[in-house]
Amino acid sequence: MKKSRLLIYILLIVFCFSSTFRIVELSVFKKDHYIEKYENLKNVYVSGPSAPRGRILDRNGKVLVDNRGSNTIIYNRTNGSSEKQEVDIAYKLGELFQYEEKDFSLQKMKTFYLILHDNGKNLITQEEYKMLEERRLDKKDIEALKYERVTNDMIEEMSYEDKNAGYIYHILSNGYFYEDKMIKKDLTDEEVVKISDLELPGVRVELVWERIYPYGDVLKTVFGTISSSVPIEYKDYYKDKGVDVNSTVGVSFLEFQYDEYLRGEDSLYKLESGHLEKVKEEKQGCDLYLSIDIETQLKVEEVLKAEMLSAKKAPNTEYFNHSYVIVGEPQTGAIVAASGLQLNKDHFVDITANMINSSYTVGSVVKGATISVGYQNGLIKEGQKVLDSCIKVYGVSKKCSWTSLGYVDDVRALAQSSNYYQFLIAAKLANPKFSNNKKLNATKEHFDIYRNMLESYGLGAKTGIDLPNEQLGIKGKTASDDLLLNLAIGQYDTYTPIEVFQYINTIANDGVRLSPSLMLRIERDGEVIVEREKEELNHVLLEDNYLKRVQKGLREVMISGTGRNYIDINISAAGKTGTSETFVDTNGDGKIDTRTISTAFIMYAPFENPQYSVVSLSPNISRSDGSSSYKYALNLRVNRKIVNYLFEKS
Predict the structure, then answer these.
(1) 3-state SS class at 496
(2) Which among 322, 326, 266, 261 is positioned nearest to 615, based on CA atoms?
(3) In the structure, what pLDDT confidence band is assigned to residue 345 with cuts at 50, 70 and 90?
(4) DSSP letter, residue 326
(5) What is the per-residue pLDDT across 506-564, written as a single tens digit (0 to 9) for each?
(6) Looking at the whole model, is its pTM more than 0.85?
(7) Is 348 left (phi over 0), alpha (psi -120 to 50) or beta?
(8) Which contacts (CB < 8 Å, 24+ apart) does range 443-448 have?
(9) What share of residues in the chain are helix, strand, coil (percent, to 5)?
(10) Cα(253)–Cα(350) distance, rounded to whole angstroms?
(11) Which of 134, 173, 176, 591 has the most CB atoms less than 10 A away?
């Protein structure tokens, strides 16, 4: 009995102690925490209209992307929204706003016709309803029959008012239920008053900020796009960042990459006794300064457009329709100008953003990297000469240089773009005892040796550019003697323009591979909050003395080699030309059927202290069917004009 009482006393003491501790914890130690939770439950906060996004400017402060405010009708379904209610809203808005009949597509009008006519119940027979009950038809089948039986005559019987309301209803009901639907923008003050007077449920007028582009389509694809609300595919991404679903967000390229800085801070309202009280002012997003020089950008596009139009007047260019040029600073990786243009009949389309995801065979421009395999593996000696010739591998057609080049050493082989010299390196790598008409017995390991070297320069590796969704070129999956020889001269794997840009920068920067970039700095209210620092990725897999030989070879390209006419003789530069055999699908059947020639050119200058690098790619510049050897020298013409401009400017 005494033990029982003792146990009860102990339990009472423990209970009192724990209760006291809990009371102290709530009232003292965690008081602020629980008050905050209470306030959050008691108070309802509502975000105001989206704040304007930060501007995008060039390196000199010239505005490339700005904002414009527009009074806009926005609809967002309330919890009690019904189809009947949305139809009523559509008719009332239709009294104020009339749309063009060309917008009234047949499918939209059929949908509205069915809504107005008891959901088309009279278009389905009793027998068909019975088949639905018996599960011989499903709801999708019934809906398909209804749409099929709404005839053009029925649609024609609809009045303009019905069609106009039908179009507005489509806007109200289309998309995800939680998304804001923009019905009409650029409202006058009078229209804003009329909308407010209607007091339509879920309908509001907001000042919506939209992007404007002072330089038109220049770099527009690289700037990217925004959405006035968070798209479903980005819902989790932005939710994790605490972004409201109705916020304006970036959804591609720079707008997405730097959204956390560009996105403004929305105003915040506290709902109290049925009234909204502003508790936080909206704040515009930060300004993003790019490394782009808009004057250089405009010059590059002017030159490229003129030369592309001239090229289309030349023979054999019927399959040529796009080119790329990238200008940068090799010692930092900064991009000064970038232009990708596609010529569609008589107008140009900006495809600059494709520089990170479209890839091409670039030919001999890769030889600075592939000759490095010979140095790294002791397969060639500095200054040792060989007689340029052809190589014959068993089971493979004879492969030669583009012309007979006589005796060449490693530097001259680069200057004159000897294929034979590269073939010998690949042959010795795969089969040290190789002699003419023997097998190489190339394996995946031999391909990996080449690709590891190429990647250390930036070819076949992600460059780390500050744009989302960068894609690599295509690496061939087949290992064979013939393809190993092709890989050695840039005729197998494909590379994106930005990979080629990083590659020439790596050579210019003494083997240090840097990430290319567009962002220079980010400012808020004139104060720098983020400043780009160059990012080193790796050093090439090559000793410095051999890299000097590569640089010397590329210097000779511009003095006495294949690139001697690509630049003014007074400018010291290093570079490399490239020509590759490519193929196109000319009839759209998914099969390549026509051989073409693609060309590329890379360079940096001045040779002693590189300030600029330039990449120029012209896929399918000419047809290659043996009827003519003429190739329009687009890269040569473009490069001379651009480099002259760069050095005249500086």
Answers:
(1) coil
(2) 326
(3) confident
(4) E
(5) 999 999 999 999 999 999 999 999 999 999 999 999 999 999 999 999 999 999 999 99
(6) no
(7) beta
(8) 443/479, 444/479, 446/479, 446/484, 447/476, 447/479, 447/483, 447/484, 447/487
(9) 40, 20, 40
(10) 14
(11) 173
